[in-house]
Design brief:
alpha+beta
Length: about 90
C-alpha cells in the first residue's frame, strides 16, 4: 500500500511523476513484474541445468544459447550485446 505524503513534502522524483502521466505509466510498467526477467519455470530450470553442466556458477561467465546449444561466454560480451540500443 502506498504511503500518503503531503504534496509539499514530496521528493523531486515523486513531483516529476505526479506531473508527467506518460512518464509515470512507463515507470510503473518498467518496475512491475514481467518483462525481461519474467521467464517460464521450465526455461529457468533448463538454464540452471546448463549453468551447472558448464561449471559457470561463481565465475565471470554467462551461459547463453547460440545456434540451439548452451555455451559459456564472457559476461562483458554477453551483457554489452545490444546494450542501450535494445528496446
Amino acid at each position: 500500500m502506498a504511503r500518503s505524503v503531503k504534496p509539499s513534502k514530496r521528493g523531486k522524483t515523486a513531483k516529476f511523476y505526479a506531473k508527467n502521466a506518460e512518464s509515470r505509466a512507463k515507470h510503473s510498467k518498467d518496475n512491475s513484474n514481467g518483462g525481461k526477467y519474467d521467464k517460464p519455470k521450465s526455461y529457468q530450470r533448463e538454464h540452471m541445468k546448463a549453468q551447472r553442466a558448464l561449471g559457470t556458477q561463481g565465475t565471470n561467465k554467462d551461459v547463453v544459447k547460440k545456434n540451439g546449444k548452451w555455451t559459456s561466454e564472457s559476461m562483458k560480451i554477453n551483457r554489452a550485446r545490444g546494450g542501450a540500443k535494445r528496446a
